[in-house]
From TrEMBL:
Superkingdom of this protein's organism: Bacteria
One function term, GO molecular function aspect: oxidoreductase activity
GO cellular component, one term: cytoplasm
SUPFAM superfamilies for this protein: NAD(P)-linked oxidoreductase
Domain NADP-dependent oxidoreductase: 17-311
InterPro entries per UniProt: AKR (IPR020471), Aldo-Keto_reductase (IPR050791), NAD(P)_OxRdtase_dom_sf (IPR036812), NADP_OxRdtase_dom (IPR023210)
Swiss-Prot/TrEMBL keywords: Oxidoreductase
Transmembrane intervals: none
Name assigned to this protein: Aldo/keto reductase
One family name in Pfam for this protein: Aldo_ket_red
Length: 331
């Protein structure tokens, strides 16, 4: 069982499915480091070699965790990390910096924590409203010239911001939330990425676990980051079960799980829009990685894709508590 390779923008080749490292931090409750390492190793073993992290995940501890895997397996991994967010977003502290000094400071700190001399894909995690994106990307491009970074990426940018960035340096990928219940990026950002030859990396492709059908109000602990998202509050979470039920109907029809159908839907949407899509679901459990990889064998009919397309209309609550924090809030 392997995930076949796919090429994003700027000739960056990765596995067709990635792994979101944020799941291996305490944002969803406590996690055992030994279990987290075993999960990462298993992902690579089955061909999920595109590993995504960020300097803000666990205050840098996620990069340090991944370093333990890279020590012996760096050549097998396409490594992505991010910079730009300051503070602790999980606690409502959403600062951003994109100035040249901070760009250079962050890459050196990340490389040290990761125990490597280069990052395959380096993202601007959020746009700094006080620094023109052209200046931030120019500073990031210096890192490519110096060999510290191989490719550049942007997270949660608008179509206009993406165009401005591409004019400075090739962009390999845009990472934004995109899933059956979060489709706002399809209005402008996804078409712009397709036009410009930029790949797309959907984060939270399973709706932070909700689209799998395994998450209820009772399973979310008091220290879970999902408590900060409107879709998980008391007024929305029960309503949103209708979306999960609709996904499960399709899953039953094709003999797959709701998670597999959700990931297969994104693969089909990438084909519809004409751009490479590499989802990065996160998990703490090895068998969930196997389940996610098996989504690559799930084929959906045009009618089933259309049925899944309608689910966004059932969803209650915005995808972010702060509109400007995501691209749709600035479009």
């Amino acid at each position: 069982m392997t995930a076949s390779p796919i090429t994003l923008g700027d000739n960056l080749t990765t596995s067709q499915l990635g792994f979101g490292g944020m799941a291996l931090t305490p944002v969803y409750g406590a996690v055992e480091p030994a279990d987290a390492l075993a999960t990462l190793h298993h992902a690579i073993d089955v061909g999920v070699t595109f590993i995504d992290t960020a300097n803000v995940y666990g205050g840098g501890s996620n990069e340090q965790l991944i370093a333990a895997v890279l020590r012996d397996r760096r050549a097998e991994v396409q490594l992505a990390t991010k910079f730009g967010i300051t503070g602790n977003p999980a606690a409502g502290d959403r600062g951003v910096r994109g100035d040249r000094d901070y760009v250079r400071q962050c890459i050196d700190e990340s490389l040290q924590r990761l125990g490597t001399d280069t990052v395959d894909l380096y993202y601007l995690h959020r746009l700094d409203p006080n620094t023109p994106i052209e200046d931030t990307v120019a500073a990031m491009a210096e890192l490519v010239t110096e060999g510290k970074v191989r490719h550049l990426g942007l997270s949660e940018v608008t179509a206009a911001e993406l165009r401005r960035a591409v004019a400075v340096h090739p962009i390999a990928a845009v990472q934004s939330e995109w899933s059956i219940w979060s489709r706002d990026v399809e209005s402008n950002v996804v078409p712009a990425a397709a036009e410009l030859g930029v790949g797309f990396v959907p984060y939270a492709p399973l709706g932070r676990g909700f689209l799998t059908g395994t998450v209820t109000a009772d399973t979310i602990s008091s220290n879970d980051i999902r408590n900060h998202f409107p879709r998980f509050d008391d007024g929305s979470i029960d309503t949103n079960r209708a979306a999960v039920a609709a996904i499960q109907t399709v899953a039953d029809a094709v003999g797959a799980t709701a998670a597999q159908v959700s990931l297969a839907w994104l693969r089909h949407k990438g084909s519809d829009f004409g751009l490479p899509v590499v989802s990065i679901p996160g998990t703490r459990k090895q068998h969930r990685i196997d389940e996610n990889v098996s989504s690559l064998d799930v084929d959906l009919s045009a009618a089933q894709v259309a049925e899944l397309d309608s689910i966004a209309g059932l969803v209650s609550g915005e995808r972010s508590a702060v509109a400007s924090w995501v691209s749709s809030g600035r479009e």
